[in-house]
Amino acid sequence: MTKLAFIGAGSTIFMKNIVGDMLHFEALRDAKIALMDIDARRLEDSRLVAEKMISAMGTGSTVEATTDRARALDGADFVVTAFQIGGYRPSTVIDFDIPRQYGLRQTIADTLGVGGIMRGLRTVPHLWAVAEDMARLCPDALLLQYVNPMAINTWALAERFPRLKQAGLCHSVQNTVEEIAHDLDLPAHDIRYRVAGVNHVAFFLTLEHEGRDLYPMLREGYRAGRLPKPPLLMPRCWNKVRYEVMDHLGHFCTESSEHLAEYVPWFIKDGRDDLIEEFKIPLDEYPLRCVEQAEGWAEQARGLKAASGIAVEKSHEFAAEMMNAIVTDTPYVAYANLPNRGQVPQLPVGAAVETPTLVDGQGCQPTNVTDIPPQLVALMRTQINVQELVVRALTEENVEHIYHAAYMDPHTGAELDLRQIRSLVTDLLAAHGDMLPEFARTRRAA
Hints:
Layout: E1 3-7, H1 12-22, E2 32-36, H2 40-57, E3 62-66, H3 69-73, E4 78-81, H4 87-101, H5 113-137, E5 142-145, H6 150-160, E6 165-169, H7 172-184, E7 191-198, E8 201-209, E9 212-213, H8 215-223, H9 240-249, H10 257-260, H11 273-278, H12 285-306, H13 319-328, E10 332-339, E11 352-360, E12 363-366, H14 374-396, H15 400-408, H16 410-415, H17 418-432, H18 438-441
Parallel strand pairs: 1-2, 1-4, 2-3, 4-5, 5-6
Antiparallel strand pairs: 6-10, 7-8, 8-9, 10-11, 11-12
Helix pairs in contact: 1-2, 1-13, 2-12, 4-5, 4-12, 4-17, 5-6, 5-14, 6-14, 8-9, 14-15, 15-17
């Protein structure tokens, strides 16, 4: 019997997607599902929803809810992680409020920039703890990791636990295909594509519909002012930044414009509010989204708990598809983030890279991609510079590399000078306090 351990299962709606997807596969319908979270109340909500889904689908799956991580992991075949260390309060608020005092404006702050750096410092030690338990309790299990900052996490896990079977998963590729289909009035399932890069800064190397290259349509539509259309997924988040980058660099990015705007030095600039207005950049979007989504998710969870039956529809997440592919030895292609072992020779060995990945009974086998255009490689390296320094800070317990990472961040360096960045990072380390690993707490006045 297949066992899934879901670490961070108090995220009821996301748990519903992953577990609900599993129940659609014959090979997973009788799985043992261990839900784990430190929040006992939210965990109980998730247990109730999972049991209602199992009842609705008429499967033989069983659910156990526990606050004991080791108990959840014991004997697992697959492990899903979905948690946010520090939560909205205090950590997300800190990551926005303190930089704002220095004039550094952000949109999402969970992947790169000073916000992404701090989140990586908070998150990696907890992922290491999960990996350490897995080495002892389920050494052959595959970790399916849904936590940001994805690339930093994946790289750091491989550095400390090189034998760990892991894949970092994101939905940016699927979401972007839906958005492009929306803009071009095409069915998303008919679009064919090939993507590669680093998570959130990967690019569509090919993008076709019935053998026709879609890039001329995207470029012409953007230059004529017809594209992008009003947002499909997030009402405040127009895709103008991605179109502008495509117009200059030739290819469409997999991550949303609100994310991409803060990964590069070109859009959020002191004294250039005209850029914010022209490209419709939603500053401070993530804190606002956190509040709105928490309210929405709480309402959804209440509805699911009260419902006598739950409709179990498949999501577009990769996790259950990958589990089924491995259990049944049925080939499936997902976009997964894995340590670069040569599959992308244009990028540094060890860095976390996102490529098409064949999944079957042999596990995850990444496709080799050797033709990323040099201008895109150059942009990806600016992201990898920051990621590597954060990973080195964590693995070497070297606080200076935290500062070095912030110095090298494209957006931070475009807004602040070296002394401002150092002062800002020191303030962030002090404010996060015990949320950070000890080596980063011991130099608060650096």
